[in-house]
Write a structure and sequence with these properties.
Rossmann fold; Structural Genomics Hypothetical 15.5 Kd Protein In mrcA-pckA Intergenic Region, Chain A; Tyrosyl-Transfer RNA Synthetase; single chain; globular; 15 strands
Length: 409
């Protein structure tokens, strides 16, 4: 079987490695690895997808992944990538969020029969005796060295709280704990976690005399320099209640042609031969590659049924059939009395979220970028009312590809 390290390199997963030769050698045989996910929200977003796919690849290659939900570390807050302290969350909020994250991870990773483990670091961190922790663990950390870590150094200008300063110690302790109790020899994570991963490896070497390793993944941005998973609506979530399967599908369809091959390699399990074949398509044929990317990515996150529904909705909207009957197209409901009186188009576009503000809506409509039932809206203040309904729905479009069904309550 091909070494997973080679698969990671070929697909573009690797940014930094503690020791390339040793890690490659380590991965020639089945090992246990882990990645942590702090439950700061009730859903993970697209920024977590590279780590999730990495764990799934590890499992497919015969290794045992641990998905570690950071119920304990979230009580402290990770300063990485933040310009100010994260809001302090209650245990109830954290436990609620952890439940949602576990459900999402299960779509990508098989946890049956201990093929993978899902844990919560609150199980061992929450009951630590602080004095004992400082004496046994804290004494192995140099403050001067900690301050060289990017996650801390970037925060020195805006202020780093003492509670956040403890985060590195706790994550290092996680790695030590998982090594001692589960034989975990590899931690993976985003590149902003490099300092924390090294701290865990160093702590384990000092206390256990063992060498364990780390891999970090690059921060994924689009060809235009935008952080992966950011849209005009905000983050793209993995929870279907926060980002619908159709919107999720459309996110992938709308990627720039330059990014398709790279994203197929990172976010699907297609063979690299197939990835390169699809990536070589040019001109109008790139639509085929985008269709495959959107379908495969949506199937992984939301299941085959939702991927099929989203693909069918896209075919109806962007193909010859312009009907809006597909259930998975995003919808918005308006009170009957309000709609009976009529709503100016620019107000409706702002109200439904197709535009962030009425000013943005006026500009869009004045420039010919707004459509109702696939007909261009000629005036930004054109009144939309019950007479515009077709099959009990109104189909709005903003630009070329953002659609919304409007129904009446």
């Amino acid at each position: 079987m091909e070494n997973i390290f080679d698969i990671f390199e070929e697909r573009g997963f690797i940014e930094q490695v503690t020791d390339r030769k040793l890690v490659s050698s380590l991965l020639e045989n089945p090992i246990t690895c882990y990645i942590g996910f702090d439950p700061t929200a009730s859903s993970l977003h697209l920024g977590s997808l590279v780590p999730i796919m990495a764990l799934a690849h590890m499992q497919r290659a015969g290794h045992r992944p641990i998905a570690l939900v950071g119920g304990g570390t979230t009580l402290v807050g990770d300063p990485s990538g933040k310009t100010e302290i994260r809001p302090i969350m209650t245990r109830e909020e954290i436990n609620h969020n952890a439940g949602g994250i576990k459900k999402q991870l299960s779509r990508f990773i098989d946890f049956s029969g201990e093929k993978a483990l899902m844990m919560n670091n609150a199980d061992w961190l929450a009951d630590l005796n602080y004095i004992d922790f400082l004496r046994d663990i804290g004494r192995h950390f140099s403050v001067n060295r900690m301050l060289t870590a990017e996650s801390y150094r970037a925060r020195m200008k805006t202020g780093l709280s003492f509670i956040e300063f403890n985060y590195m110690l706790l994550q290092a302790y996680d790695f030590l704990h998982l090594f001692k109790h589960y034989g975990c020899r590899l931690q993976m994570g985003g590149n902003d976690q490099w300092g924390n991963i090294l701290a865990g490896a160093d702590l384990t070497r000092r206390l256990e005399g063992e060498v364990i390793h780390g891999i970090t993944f690059p921060l994924i941005t689009t060809s235009t320099g935008i952080k992966m998973g950011k849209t005009h609506k905000g983050a793209v979530w993995l929870d279907p209640g926060m980002t619908s399967p159709y919107d999720y599908y459309q996110y992938w369809i709308n990627q720039d042609d330059k990014d398709i091959e790279r994203f197929l390699a990172l976010f699907t399990f297609l063979s690299m031969e197939e990835v390169r074949k699809l990536g070589s398509l040019k001109g109008e044929n790139t639509r085929e590659a985008k269709d495959v990317l959107a379908y495969e990515a949506t199937k992984l996150c939301h299941g085959e049924r939702e991927a099929e529904r989203s693909a069918e909705a896209a075919r109806q909207l962007f193909g010859a059939d312009k009907s809006a009957s597909a259930e998975s197209i995003p919808s918005y409901s308006i009170d009957y009395n309000e709609f009976e009186e009529g709503i100016p188009a620019f107000v409706l576009y702002e109200k439904t979220g197709l535009c962030k503000s009425r000013g943005e809506a006026r500009r869009l409509l004045s420039q010919g970028g707004g459509y109702i039932n696939n007909k261009r809206i000629e005036a930004f203040d054109r009144i939309i009312d019950l007479k515009d309904m077709e099959n009990d729905l109104i189909l709005l479009r903003a630009g070329k590809k953002r659609y919304l069904k409007v129904s009446v309550l």
